[in-house]
Amino acid sequence: MDTHKIFGLIGYPLGHSFSCGFFNDKFAAEGIDARYINFEIPSVTELKEVLDDHPGLSGLNVTIPYKEKVIPYLDRLDPEAEAIGAVNVIKIIRDDPDDEDDYELVGYNSDVVGFRDSISPLITPQRTKALILGTGGAAKAVRQGLKSLGVESVYVSRSPRQGMLSYDDLTPEVMASRKVIVNTTP
Fold first, then answer.
1. In 3-state terms, the chain is what percent helix, strand and coil (to 5)?
2. Domain range holding 28?
């Protein structure tokens, strides 16, 4: 099969990732002329090398530990990715296919869309306050999704900072006052 498009995943380590098999199986089943490659890079600074070595690259997924670290390497961010401060999808726009250095990198966060679309039917006038268990990248996407739905949220953390709650703060009264609880911890 002569592939025209290449997609991939950057992160480190990637031994746990099922993305390569999943997407290649999906491309084959759907008759999509593309392939998916895992790019296990020990440093995000190697992103340019990945782009240079694969001029047909159309897009990348981003996983740990680069969801935040990759932002300075991008040309622009989708407004939601900017608000979240984390990127898990990079679109590679190539204006001149003959010029390997002529591309624009645009960062997106697909977690917020998936979360918002999933929870939106459950949001009611009685469910306008939420607790978010965890403070990582997924928690930031959840918070942005809740905010876009008009739901006020508070993070719960093992190491809380100002404006957060600790797990010890989760009394029955606190939990009853928040009708939505989202667990973003592993």
1. 35, 25, 40
2. 5-108
Query: What is the reported pLDDT for 1?
Result: 41
Same-domain pairing of 103 and 135: no
β-pairing verdict for 89-94 and 103-108: antiparallel
What share of the chain has pLDDT > 70, as a percent?
A: 97
d(CA 40, CA 159): 30
Dist. CA 35–CA 160, nearest whole Å = 42
Pair (48, 140) in one structural domain: no
What is the CATH classification number for the domain harbouring 77?
Answer: 3.40.50.10860
- pTM (whole model) above 0.70: yes
Q: For residues 133 and 182, is the Cβ–Cβ distance under 8 A?
A: yes
Q: Looking at the 3D structure of the chain, how many domains does it have?
A: 2
Catalytic residue among 67, 69, 147, 179: 67
Q: What are phi and psi of 59, to 5 degrees?
A: -170, 160
Residue whose token pair is 């029955």: 172
Q: Does one domain contain both 147 and 94?
A: no
Cβ partners under 8 Å of residue 119, min gap 6: 145, 146, 149, 180, 182
147 is catalytic: no
Domain co-membership, 64 together with 121: no
